[in-house]
Amino acid sequence: MKSLVLLGGGYGNMRLMKEIIPSALPSDYSITLIDRMPFHSLKTEFYALAAGTAPDKDIRVQFPKNTKINTVYGEITDIDLDNQIVSVGDTRVDYDELVIGLGCEDKYHNVPGAKEYTYSIQTVQNARKTYQAICDLPSNATIGIVGAGLSGIELASELRESRQDIKIKLFDRGERILPAFPEKLSNYVKKWFDKHDVEVVPKSNITKVDPGKLHNNEDIHEVDLVVWTAGIQPVEIVRNLPVDTNDSRRVIVNQYHQIPTYKNVYIVGDCAALPHAPSAYLAEIQADQIAEVMKLQWANKPLPEKMPELKPQGFVGSLGEKQGFAYLMEQTVTGRLARVIKSGVLWLYKYHNG
């Protein structure tokens, strides 16, 4: 019996299992899924869990149930690419083919105190801790959110609806929010923050984090709690693999999403060096291509000379319960419609995976 081992139960590997089970997986193959949690976590909704506007049960989806899927729960401690062994503590798992989809963790950019004195929403465990810490804050406390990307924006807006009694400061490195996208979108988000008393601090450069203090350029901001959403990087065990990576420490892959020096190993999701920003949707369309490559190889058919280009269609973000913003197929959508689209995407995902 041959073994296909999937590291991480994120969006990429969830999509891959859906594409190859039950009909495409060869009869002499089994799948082993390894994850630290006994369920798939909806990472795109961790901001709501941390803010207290979504309960824990709403951001969980059960892994697929199939006789060909074995599950191993625990922390991966070693990936031996040469001997084709994954270690989970004292448990050794051999593989014939491997898909690494272990996701990312916060990148602190060597800012002193950032790792020690800030909270995170990168894992479900961290989002839970952040939620508890926010719950314990008294009225009129100040929360600093470092990083005004999609996660920071959604967390700030959700916090405003969850805790109207606290002050929120969103530290944005750029001159305007989401500078890579049309100014109409940026202006809409900024007006929402102005209306709902969320202070946006532009041109921020956080140089140090102390307990109760954020050092921004030459200014010091008094804060009761800081959440870090200012960048991500592949998890440490992937960064330490003996393979080529780009400047962001993401693994360089060929057009078939394989490590060039280990072609039985695929990289899916945030750990892969791709020409687009990491996202759940990008991981899914990448997984679709990995599934096609595997099917051809299992059938002893040649791979295409050129794989189709990965084409993410954009993103959708929420501004609380009723408003949102989106950039889809190079079109800007704001307001209630954008929020409905996001809710619909989430409902469909749960429906098709639940």
UniProtKB/TrEMBL annotation:
GO molecular function: NADH dehydrogenase (quinone) (non-electrogenic) activity
Flavoprotein in keyword set: yes
Broad class of enzyme this protein falls into: oxidoreductase
Keywords from the named record: FAD, Flavoprotein, Oxidoreductase
Residue span, FAD/NAD(P)-binding domain: 3-280
GO biological process: aerobic electron transport chain
Cofactor(s) this protein requires: FAD
Key word Flavoprotein present: yes
Reaction catalysed by this enzyme: a quinone + NADH + H(+) = a quinol + NAD(+)
PANTHER family hit by this protein: 64 KDA MITOCHONDRIAL NADH DEHYDROGENASE (EUROFUNG) (PTHR42913:SF3), APOPTOSIS-INDUCING FACTOR 1 (PTHR42913)
Protein name: Type II NADH:quinone oxidoreductase
Provenance organism: Mammaliicoccus stepanovicii
